[in-house]
Amino acid sequence: MSAAIIDGKAAAERLRGRVAALVPDFATKAGRQPGLTVVLVGEDPASAVYVRAKGKATEAAGMKSDTIRLPAGTGQDELLDLVRALNADASVDGILVQLPLPAQINENAVIATIDPNKDVDGFHPVNAGRLATGLYGFVPCTPLGCLMLLKEQLGDLAGREAVVIGRSNIVGKPMAQLLLGESCTVTIAHSKTRDLPAVVRRADIVVAAVGRPEMVKADWIKPGAAVIDVGINRIDAGEGKTRLVGDVAFDEVAQVAGAITPVPGGVGPMTIAVLLRNTLVAAHRNAGVPLDKGTI
Ligand code: NAD
To answer: How far apart are CA 114 and CA 123, in angstroms?
Structure first.
């Protein structure tokens, strides 16, 4: 194996440590803890696991964590009223409504109702617009975590060819905007891209965010490229067992790439760490306490 393994678990622990170290100073100056409220509608088991993990991590960082659990049959108006109440609550710095939502609720309507200055997921159209126009706002946690890993690994990214596979609002598009902001030459590939392997072969940086197990093969990769695997796919491992794999055929791509994130233990742990970072930033902004963002 030739590629350096990018240890997202260790990077996430360092980021969580930096966030936790800044919480007491905020609490002294603001007279309260930073607060994150997570809203979970229904009983989707994967969402319940994520929400529990977010709550635990928030508390471990010394922040106030609230989880509001609503029944699966909750109506859209009821949820929007709750979001408006959280917008108005000065003790709530970050609001995260766990997706996906039940079919009777329009996700876009919910995202658009969250106060953009409490939108720690960075999904509000105002924050997407701020990112696209280079203004300061909240950036979705997963792509920001990917960018942090890339900068830690590669340093300055300016001038590099980057190919992002996937164009979702949550990962692909904001990832491309972030890389553009770092002065990469960015291509966004997607399900209608012609000759995807040839497009990916141009890249010094590949970010795969597709949701297709082990789709990216070794002969798609320029030797020495950095490969960030966002995909989380559960596949059959035989004998009634399953295992997690990414969108990248890790074992073969690691022979060619210069650096690569594993799944699990790569991008995944960064997502919650960045959520804590965004919550700390929101708290400083909402309370009017200055924060040197270079510190996190
Ligand atoms: P999505 O389904 O919203 O988007 C997938 C994208 O892949 C689409 O834009 C589509 O055009 C593209 N695509 C589909 N088939 C393709 C193909 N054959 N060739 C090229 N492009 C193709 O998914 P998403 O929400 O962006 O998530 C992508 C993956 O990342 C999923 O596996 C998801 O579980 C994972 N994910 C991980 C984290 C994390 O914390 N690590 C966070 C979010 C998403």
So the answer is: 9
